[in-house]
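Running co-folding for pyridoxal-5'-phosphate.
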Amino acid sequence: MLSAISRYGARVLPNTEEIVADCRSRGTLIQGPQIAEFEEAFARRVGGGRVITTAYGRMAFYYMLKALDLPAGSEIVMPALTFWVIPALAQAAGLKLVFADVDPATFTLDPDSFERAITPNTRVVVPTHLYGLPCDMDRILDIAGRHNLIVLEDCAHALGATYRGRPVGTFGQGALFSFQTLKPLNCYGGGAALVQSPALAERVAGFAYAEPWPSEERVNKRLFTGKLQRIFIRPWVFSISSFPILWLASWMGANPDVYLWEKIRTLSPLPAEYTERFPNVQAAIGLAALGYLDDWTRQTQAHARLVTESIADIPGVVPPVVPPDRTHVYYQYCVYGPDRDKLVVNCVRRGVDIETLHVDTCSDLELFGDARTDAPGARRAAEAMQIPVYSDLTDEQVQRVARTVRAVLSEAASGA
Ligand SMILES: *Cc1c(COP(=O)(O)O)cnc(C)c1O
């Protein structure tokens, strides 16, 4: 079988093993000075505010909601298209969920839909910079300001992206970042809150730092999983291991994604692994990774440009829209085309693994009960397909992605 290109690529430091060995020999795997160093470096990198590390990005969000101490019945407006865990944690924190639609052109919160979702009980809005593109922040901040709402940005996909030259994460009272394996800054898990007001930051820190330290066993397991992931997404290993599953599934109409992701379920009470501190070894990895972030972002953007150039002229194909006032970091590169499911199957058969929906149409999930609502923009957005452009693809691989996607899309456009 031909070698295959995975849908996912993790950003991996050349010296991960040395960093881990160094922490081990100093006895700073769990507690150590690099946590505070990383928090300060991260705050400097994003540009202001105080950074508080957490076991997951989602927990940064949860602690910020707890720290706000909002009255019972407070409502939170969230985009209908996001990772299901974030609205589930808003519910776990005691807020009433209200979904607003997204603009299917940009995949991000539609300001008009946000404004329509506001009631006298609305207290918070969450602009999610989905797939790495900043939301329309001027309009969102204007609406939030007029209604006196707190803005918490979800930057899990968008570290390094800018809106009118200013980095995401600095527009709201608070922001969350994720350091999961596939996210822009890979620490093999973890996350952080970026909080502007010192008083609110102190309260967030009060929650986050009161959690127990993870056991050495758990951290070792996490590092080991990271090592396996690093091995398994190398093209040749991917080809002989997980790709045959995807390849077979493409002939059987099965969706192997359902086995890869966390099961959708209620999050209250919180799962035990959520309520821990972020360990020193992962901070040490993050600290080193910050030095590579700009290069990784530039590589990903160059790959995205190459794919866009190769498909932009095909009738019926819509590459990602980037409004001129923003930069896109392409955590996911999303394209609309005719007959998506057939396209994906045809790409997979030619060895390019394509993902269809990286997040969830939360407004349709049973989990959210009465908060479910009609969000046509989110449903439309869920029809896009996600083409691999991640930073660690080689030039040759990204050219192959572009060629394959172009061939498959052109065939579909000409009705072949
Ligand atoms: C990954 C992600 C998060 C939070 O990530 P954690 O897994 O909790 O670190 C938040 N929002 C979105 C949209 C995400 O994709």
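Result summary
The chain has 15 helices and 15 strands.
The chain has two domains: 16-209, 235-266+291-414.
Job closed.
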